[in-house]
Amino acid sequence: MKAVEIYTQPRCGFCTAAVRLLTQKGAPVTEIDAARGSPRRAEMIQRANGRSSTPQIFIGDTHVGGCDDLFALQDAGKLDALLTS
């Protein structure tokens, strides 16, 4: 299974939902604290091509996007393939 990096911030319900889904799938999730003003937030924005909302999710080298994008992949039946390919 591919490693997942997810940029999150405290008290973010979307971050919690995304981590929960990925954990249920058995994905190895690394959370990166991207709280406003942190150096990791600038890193996230650069990696996510300017997107500044959290979470920002990366599966392997693929930028998935945010929570809605992750759940759209799940609903379309494409998340499992992305995690295992």
TrEMBL record:
Keyword Repeat set for record: no
Keyword line: Cytoplasm, Electron transport, Redox-active center, Transport
GO terms assigned for molecular function: glutathione disulfide oxidoreductase activity
CC annotations in GO: cytoplasm
Organism domain of life: Bacteria
Biological processes annotated in GO: cell redox homeostasis; cellular response to oxidative stress
Keyword Cytoplasm recorded: yes
Family the entry assigns: Belongs to the glutaredoxin family.
Function: Has a glutathione-disulfide oxidoreductase activity in the presence of NADPH and glutathione reductase. Reduces low molecular weight disulfides and proteins.
Database matches in PANTHER family: GLUTAREDOXIN 2 (PTHR45694), GLUTAREDOXIN-1-RELATED (PTHR45694:SF18)
Protein name: Glutaredoxin
